[in-house]
Every structure is written in C-alpha cells, then in structure tokens.
Amino acid sequence: MTIEQQLENQTLFFQAFQYAPIGMVLVAINGSVLKANSTVCSILGLSEEELLLKSVQEMTHPDDLNLDLAYRDQLIEGMRESYQMEKRLINQQGEIVWVQITVSLVKNNAGEPLFFISQVINISDQKRTYNEIQKKNRLLIEREQRYRSVVEHAFDFITTHNPDGTYLYASPSCYEVLGYTPEEMIGKSGNEFLHPEDVLLGTQDHITILQTDKQSNKIVRLRKKDGIYIWIESTSSTLLDSETGEMKEIIIVSRDITEQIKKERNLQDNEQRYKSLFDYHPDLIYSMDLEGNYTSINQTFEELMGYTKQEMIENPLNFRSVVDSTDFEKVEQHFIQAAKGIAQRYEASGINKNGRYTTFDVTNVPIFVNRQIIGVYGIASDITYRNELWKRLEESQSLYQLISENAQDIITFATPDGVVSYVSPAIRTLLGYEPDEYVGKVAIDFWHPDDVASFIDKSILLKSDVDTFTCRVRHKQGNYVWFETTAKIIRNEGREIVKVLAVGRDISERKRAEQELKAAKDQLESFIDRNVDPILILNLGDRVVRFNHAFEKTYGWTESEIVGLHILELPNIPLELQPEVVRNLARIKSIEAIEGYETIRKRKDGVLLTVMISSFAMRGENGHINGWAVILRDITDKKQAEELLIRSEKLSIAGQLAAGIAHEIRNPITAIKGFVQLMKSGIVEKKMYLDIMVSEIERIEMILSELLILAKPQIIQTELTDIRMLLAQVTTLLDTQAIINNVQIITEFDPEIPLILCDENQLKQVCINFIKNAIEAMPKGGNIVIQLKSNNENPNQLLLRFIDQGCGIPAHILSKLGEPFYTTKEKGTGLGFMVSKRIIENHHGEIAVFSEENKGTTIEVSLPIAH
User: Which residues in 475-589 belong to E strands, given as ranges?
Assistant: First the structure.
C-alpha cells in the first residue's frame, strides 16, 4: 500500500491535511513532493499534479537551499525533532514568495525515516508590511494585558519626587526606557540623570513648580544606564497635603520622544511637519465634504486604493463607490452620525481601483470650522493582516493540539499541587502507560524516591517560573527511565498559579553515554597516576595543572612546588635548554604530538638525567584541545649502556687493527734502520736520507696517533667536519690490512662536498667497521669502492656508500642485520653493525644495506649536511 493510500485511509488526517488553511506538503526523503494541499498549490500557482513532478530543491531559492537541507539532515540524524525557518520559494511565474515552513520527520515503528511533513505559511505580505505587523502585535499584547495596572505597564514612565527633587518612586517601565531598576533611582536627585546642558532648564522648571504649584511641561535629555542620552517629554504636577495645603510630592509623567525629536529635526518647518504627518502616515488619512466626496487624501490612500490626487480634482470620488456592498448600509450610518458631530469607529471592507478588497479599522470625526461641521475626517488602518492573524491564532490551537498528540516527548499539564490533568499519547511509547492511567495521579508518585528528595533540595521552580531538571520515572514494566524535563508555571492575570506545563524527553541513552565517558575518564586518571614514567599535564596557558607520583619520585619536587608553574619556570629544565623547550612547545601546538625526543632534565639534587620526551594534545568532550600531556622517560641507564657498548666495540676494533698497524710500523722502521747503516758507512748524501727518515717517522706518528684516538675514551661532542678528510684518515689506518688481504681501497668523491655536523671519533668508528667488514668479506681479494656524493632526491643530505665484491649476504639474513649477537662471522658478536647503526641514527642519518650473494654488498649511509 502506497503512502498516499495509507494517509487517505485515515479520514481525519486527510481532511485536516487537505482543507488546512495553511499549506501542507508531504515530502520524500530525497526532496520530491508526495502530496500537497490546495493552499500550497495556490501559493506556488501550480496544480497538485504539476507540483508532484517537482522537488523541494527546484522550488527553493538557491540562497536558502543549503540551510534547508542542513536542517533536514539533522532531522534524519536525530539531532532535532523539527525545525522552523523562513525561506523563499519560486512560483510558477518565477516570482519569489516568502514562506515560513515548519518541518518534522515521520518515522516507522523501527525508527526509520519515511517522509517529511511541512507546514507552509505565505508571509510575503508580512515581509512587506513589517512595521505594521509590529504595531498590530503590540495592540494584541496590549489587549491581552488590558486588566493590568496602567502605571505598572504604561508606555510612559511615572516618577514621584520630594520637594527637593529626589526620587520617591519610579514605575517599572523606567527599567524598559532607561535601564535602571526603581531601586537604583530612588533616593537620588533628578539632576544626576540630566544631560549637563539641561541641568539649568531642569532646575528652573523645578523652582517654577515649587513657587506656582502649576503643571509644567518640559523636554530634556536623560542618561540611560548604558550612558546614552535620550529625549524625554515630561509633565510635572504637584500633590498637596490635604491637611496643611503644603506641597507633598511632585508627580512627573515622562515618555521617550527620542524618535520623535529625530524626526522633527529632519523637517524644515511646521508646515512640512504637518504635511508629512498627513501624507506619509502609514494609515489612510482623508477628508470628505458633507456629501461624502473626498476633498483630500494622503499618500497611503493613493498607494492602497489606487486613486491619485489629480484624479480626485478632475473627477470627484465619493466614499460610497469604494465601499463593499455588504458593508454599505453600516458605513452610510456611521458617516451620517459623524456628520452630526458624533465620532465613529467601525470595521468595514473597501474596494480599490483594481478591485482588491481590504479590511479597515475606520475612525470618522467631524470637521469643525467656526463651530460649524463642514465635513468628516477619516483615518483607516489596514487590519486585513490582523484579522488573518486572529484567524491563524484560532487555527494554531488546533495545530498545537495536533503537535501535542504526535510529539515524541511527553507533554503534561498538572494542577498547582502536581495532579496530572493531561498527558500526551507519547507516554504509551516511552513509559508504557495509557494516558487514562496517568491522568489524575500525582506526577512525583512515579519518580524514583532519590530523585524526589533531590527535586525538593534543589528548590526547583521556587526561584523561577521556568526550570529544567532530570529524574527517573517508573516504566509500567517496573524499570526506571531517565527523563530531562522542562517545566513552566502558568499564571493568571493576578499572578496566581493556574497550572504547570511540563515537557519530558527520554535521555536514557545520553545518561549511559555520560556514564561511559566517566568510566573512560577514570581509566585515564588511573593510567596517569599508576604510570611508571613521569607525566606532566599542561593547560592551554602552558601551566602545570597536575603530575603523577612517578614525577615526584624521579625528580624530587612536590606537588605544591610544581603545580601552577609555567613550563619555562619548571626547575627540572636546565637553563641553557629553555630555548629548546620554546621551540618544542611551538612544534607541539602545530602538530599536536612529539614522540621520542631525547634531551636532558635535572633532579632536585642536581643530577642530570637523559630523558626521552613524548607529548600529545588532550581533547575535551567537545573535541577541542584543552591541554597537553608530557611523558618524560628516564633513559639514563640505557644511554650509559649504549656508550659502554660503543666504547667496547671501539676497543675491539683497535685490537683487531693492531696486527696490521704493527706491520705498517715495521716497514718504515726497516727503512730508517737501513739508512742509518748507510750513513755509518760514510755515504755523503746524508740530507736526502735524513729527509726520508723524517718522513717515515712522521708516518709512524700519524698511525699511532689515529690508533690512540680511536682507542681512547672521549666525551661525545659534535663539530663541523670535512668528511673527505675523515675518510682519508680511516683509509690510512686500514691500507696495510687491505694490502695484506690483497684488497684495494678506491675512493670516488664529488668535488663539492659540504661539511657535516658530527662526532668525528664515532663516525670514524662506523667507517672502520664497514671497511673492515668489507675486507673480511673478500678472502680472495678484490676492490672496495668508497663513494661520497650529493643526494639528488634530498639536497639537505649527502650519500656515503661502501661497495665490496665479497660473498654477499643471503636475503633471509639481511632482514636480521642490526640485531644484537646476530652475526655471519665465525668469531663475530653481531654488535658492530648494531652500534654503527645506532651512531648513524644519533647523527639523524639513515642506513640501508643492499646485497646479492656471490656478487657483493653495498652499505648506503645518508647524513644531513650542516647549515
């Protein structure tokens, strides 16, 4: 069965839909029109058949479409129950029609969206006559408040003063006009609120009243609470003591005439002022002779009725020709009475030149000249919209009833003592009761006992007529359901409580989510408190808001010494490292996280610790960053172990080089020895021999120096280094060992190689390790090529390659290189490559190994150049 058939089977709904005085449309989820009543068709100038071929997107003005679609998506996602907005539609003629739409989503029993129900009200006239609407709305409000005190609610504000000018009383409307409460004015002098330029006028007027007891009028400027001055027209009169006849009080009635003053100042003279009042009044103003012919009309009359003043002169127009025939007799009688001198007020319909009907609120008063009635004045206000408004108000009562009966929230009315007098049908779905089972009962009898006590303790609805609270309500099956309820006290004109309106929404899912969030928060707190690594929590102002026990245990400072400090004020940060902290802080805020940053921190006793810092942003429930967490892992022992390992490996290399170096030293010693013997034999050319001997001794010194530097423990320090010189020194040490193994070392260096920032001793250790491994991989001899080139892919790096022609490394072993104690050598430890890899990483470099069995191995090292 189609949606249309289902709806037509529901006779009451169909009639309410089809004959509703406002537009009603059923719209599919994709925006196509499923059904529309005649009112919508007339608004758009389309038949229902034509309308069914269109979509909401086609008929909506492009500037309003995105907001409309966004609201519809929120309905589908359950983010709102309904929405109301003003938007523009494009009718059949391509004209823009302003409408107010109210849209709700209809779902099936499974909660799946079926279609939208849209209520459409044409507000085009309302838009054009906004100012009149405001005036009519004020009239409606005044009518509703007609039984209230004139003084308390008058547009004018009333004050009473002592004879000395101090305030005795100020009506509540003072607050509306000036922004002051009566309490803020009482006891103060009126001159305190006057504009400095008007103080003299106010003083003179006050003296005149005291001396003459006569009523006075004055126009002055008063200061509002926000400091702005407004123009006030005041009428002052005195109240005399009935017994003594002495002045008791001064009563002043004032009104805000700021707008009036502004308008008057824009007029050139009195003649133009009165002419403008007549010509530009929003109501129709006209005069008639005793025959009923119009003798003058204002601009509004011309615009609304379609007749010009020139037409009136050329062809006099009688009021009887523009009156609706159904009101003719009534209008005629009122005109006759006005012509007799009796003012008249009535409602009647008029017809303009184009045949359009308008309903007017008409006032007719006689025109007297020398005490003779010579005609009738007329003032006519267009009340067509007001009448429509009243009609819509009546219709809205039915609409509100429809909404109440179909709302997903529970709507209740209760007596002042809490007895339910009405409950909406939604109670069946949410609590399982039939409305009859709930009506007549006290609402709090269904609440959880703990929530009744909480309701009383919080003084709900005692401080305000509107309040919101949460409580658990018993389901018919016995379980409790969480509700968020907004209650409003409804009072009569005497401020007595008549009934209480309450709208309750099931928030059980939200409560469960809140409990899950609290559990997650507790888990996070436990993680922080029990973590073995020190953790600091910073707020958005970069100040410490908390830290865990591990921080106090590691560094020695207590909570009172640390919490509240700015990160740059933390005592565990060495002074020379503060610029580094500033840089890292900016980096954290830009990328939200830092992992594994190595630096130095200080304990309270002065001991320096090497730490690994990780930091990440912390987000609140709304997803916004509300602070940062900093984890400081102490890696001092680890770093010491690494340094020890590097030194041990260095000594091992020195020992292995000793044999080759001994052979290298023996050669120059043999040469020196031979030359000494030749010199003893008396050969004359001693200078040449001495030069050779000095050269050989210098070579011995250089080799021994390099060996000592390599073996000696040194403080790690980085400096700008020419890597070509470093490689030359390394090949000097290893040349002899290479020659012994029938290996030739070949260097291929680019001519322009920039300097690098490194620890020269550690980088020598890496190069010796890789060259030594290459020599050992070629037992039958071969070539080792050392390449030093710029990195074309990354201009900020250079590439250093060690290429041998050895046995190569199998693929299954290649992936395990760098693991401790894993080696392919019979007597190796596996630590050499691991240490070398660690040294390169400490220099912010990378290492890659490419190998093929029986063809050779290439070790590629990339190092950053110095800037």
Answer: 480-491, 497-506, 535-538, 544-547
Q: Residue 761, Cβ neighbours under 10 Å: how many?
A: 18
pLDDT at 596 > cutoff 90: no
Q: If you ran DSSP here, which 8-state letter would residue 824 be given?
A: S
Please tell me whether residue 375 adopts helix, strand or coil conformation: strand
Report helix, strand or coil for 262: helix
How far apart are the C-alpha atoms of 568 and 563, rounded to whole Å? 13
The residue ranking higher by pLDDT, 167 or 384, is 167
In this prediction the pTM is: 0.30
Strands 372-382 and 846-852 turn out to be unpaired
Contacts of 618 (CB under 8 A, 6+ apart): 537, 625, 626, 627, 628, 629
The residue with tokens 């002055």 is 220
The residues, ordered by sequence, that sit 6+ positions from 689 with a Cβ below 8 Å of its Cβ are 675, 678, 679, 683
Give Cα 664 to chain centroid, integer Å: 76
Q: Give yes or no for a contact between 842 and 859, defined as CB atoms under 8 angstroms apart.
A: no
Q: What is the pLDDT averaged over residues 723-727?
A: 87
- Average pLDDT on 843-860 reads 88
3-state secondary structure of 420: strand
State the Cα–Cα distance between residues 620 and 524, nearest whole angstrom.
Answer: 13
CA pair distance 663, 407, nearest whole angstrom: 101
Give helix 636-680 / helix 723-740 axis angle, nearest 10°.
Answer: 60
Whether the CB-CB separation of 633 and 615 falls below 8 Å is answered with no
**Cα–Cα distance between 702 and 732 in angstroms, integer?**
9
Q: Cα dihedral angle (822, 828, 834, 837), rounded to 10 degrees?
A: -130
Q: Which two tokens stand for residue 81?
A: 């129950």
User: Which amino acid is residue 318, in one-letter code?
Assistant: N
User: CB atoms < 10 A from the CB of 473, how many?
Assistant: 22
Residues in CB range of 814: below 8 A, 6 or more apart = 849, 851
Closest by Cα among 831, 737, 822 to 784: 737
Q: Which single residue is written with the structure tokens 């990328």?
A: 591
Write down the pLDDT at residue 245.
Answer: 77
Based on its alpha-carbon atoms, the radius of gyration of the chain, rounded to whole angstroms, reads 49
Cα 477 to the center of its chain, rounded Å = 42
Q: Are strands 593-602 and 797-803 parallel, antiparallel or unpaired?
A: unpaired
Residues 155, 173 contacting (CB under 8 angstroms): yes
Q: Which two tokens stand for residue 455?
A: 């309701």
DSSP secondary structure letters along 82-144: EEEEEEEEE-TTS-EEEEEEEEEEEE-TTS-EEEEEEEEEE-HHHHHTHHHHHHHHHHHHHHH
151 with 170: CB under 8 angstroms? no
Query: Exposed/middle/buried for 288, CB within 10 Å: 0-12, 13-18, 19+?
Result: buried
- Cross-strand bridge partners of residue 367: 375
* HEC secondary structure over 752-776: CCCCEEECHHHHHHHHHHHHHHHHH
Distances (CA, A) of 564 to 533, 546, 613: 21, 8, 21
From residue 35, alpha-carbon distances to 23, 48, 485 in Å are 11, 8, 35
Q: Which of 343, 360, 208, 228 is nearest to 284 (CA)?
A: 360
- Which residue would you say has higher pLDDT here, 277 or 839? 839
SS3 per-residue string spanning 590-609: HHCEEEEEEEEEECCCCCEE
Question: What Cα–Cα distance (Å) separates residue 458 from each residue in 448, 468, 480, 489, 502?
Answer: 16, 11, 21, 17, 17
Tally of CB atoms within 10 A around 224: 14
Under the banding of pLDDT at 50, 70 and 90, the label for residue 148 is very low
Q: What is the 3-state secondary structure (H, E, C) of 180-234?
A: CCHHHHCCCEHHHHECHHHHHHHHHHHHHHHHHCCCEEEEEEEECCCCCEEEEEE
Rounded Cα–Cα distance for residues 506 and 865 (Å)? 65
Q: To which residue do tokens 């190689």 refer?
A: 753
Q: Compute the distance between CA of residue 218 and CA of residue 204 in angstroms, rounded to an integer.
A: 11
Q: Say how many C-beta atoms besides its own lie within 10 A of residue 832's C-beta.
A: 21
